[in-house]
Amino acid sequence: MTNKSYQLAVVGATGAVGQQMLKTLEERDFPISTLKLLSSKRSAGKTITFRGQPYTVEEATPASFEGIDIALFSAGGSVSKALIPEAVKRGVVCVDNTSAFRMDKDVPLVVPEVNEHDLQSHQGVIANPNCSTIQMVVALEPIRQAYGLNKVVVSTYQAVSGAGLDAVDEMEAQTKAVLAGEEASASVLPVSGDKNHYQIAFNAIPQIDLFQENGFTFEEMKMINETKKIMHLPSLEVAATCVRLPIETGHSESVYFETEKSGASAAEVKERLSNAPGVTLQDDPTNQVYPMVTTAVGKPDVFVGRIRKDLDRDNGFHAWIVSDNLLKGAAWNSVQIAESLIKLNLIKKQA
Predict the structure, then answer these.
(1) Does residue 251 have an active-site annotation?
(2) Which CATH number is 133-323 given?
(3) Which of 49, 64, 145, 166 is the most buried (most CB within 10 A)?
(4) So where's the catalytic machinery, residue-wise (predicted)?
């Protein structure tokens, strides 16, 4: 990738996404000269092994970013809002995995397969989009390039790991309780800070994040607004319904989309997707081949299948999209952004 090596910080190193970031950095042989693992005061002091070496996790403070070139953030929006401006002041390029800066007009919101060029305008902060948005735009971008895009309607089937480790633990405890004929207690999902909490085991919860005044949840509005920003299509019609399912890892999406140009066949759309970066086409209904979380988890690609033409609209299509929400939806996309910044020579190495 480069002959240079960089001083890197991972903020939120003890969390699910932070752990996956470290694993991805290791697998990609990312060029690191110095690694600093940062977290909240509560998690500071833990030891994490990276490339065979033990690292002590430190509490993240403004001074932590002295001499750092790149920082990957995944420690919650409030941490990002407090610390990213301090890091940028110290010359750090920050890749943020929270929603804190995503819709800021001066912050590029980047999925490298779709809009890597937007990195050129960064002012020290790059936002990593919502996990559900990422996998959808990776699949839709080759279609947009070929035929244009007018409308997108998506229903998501999202894994519990998207809500954090506490939610995964609660799902496992509830599953054991239900199977033992006991009552399943709930305190995390759908949203830990909301009024009511519901069992996720053996259930489907049609709420991810808080409801907004328009009746959509914040997660749904993230998908709507982020898709328009990433694809530079402010007038694109987008609607989303986001549902939590009792699956540990891996988000699935049923997507209906309408192209600007009519006349394309399902076979032509499949051909475009089969050659698209970051996409694996799994579409052979005769042999029951289609994307599933059980085969997508642990892999960096976005898997697409069940592509078929709408029965009523010549420019309408349906697709099924699956990806690992902790990998492409978070850690891998963040590391990919960092790799793109290096490739495009957009990181000024500090002394």
Answers:
(1) yes
(2) 3.30.360.10
(3) 64
(4) 131 (acyl-thioester intermediate), 251 (proton acceptor)
Detail the residues annotated as belonging to a binding site for phosphate.
Answer: 102
Which residues participate in the annotated binding site for NADP(+)? 14-17, 42-43, 161-162, 325
Give the Cα separation of 44 and 39 in Å (integer). Answer: 6
Report, as ranges of residue numbers, the positions in the chain whose pLDDT lies below 70: 1-2, 351
The residue annotated as part of the active site, out of 131, 197, 242, 318, is: 131
152, with CB counted inside 10 A (0-12, 13-18, 19+), is buried
Is 6-128+330-344's fold the same as 133-323's?
no
pTM of the model: 0.96
Q: How confident is the model over 125-147, as pLDDT tens digits?
A: 999 999 999 999 999 999 999 99
94, 122, 242, 251: the catalytic one is 251
* Distance (Å, whole) CA 147 – CA 145: 6
**Cα separation, 12 vs 73, whole angstroms:** 6
Distance (Å, whole) CA 1 – CA 106: 28
Contact yes or no for 337/24 (Cβ under 8 A)? no
Burial class (CB in 10 A: 0-12, 13-18, 19+), 37: buried
CATH architecture of 6-128+330-344: 3-Layer(aba) Sandwich (3.40)
Domain-wise residue ranges, the chain:
6-128+330-344, 133-323
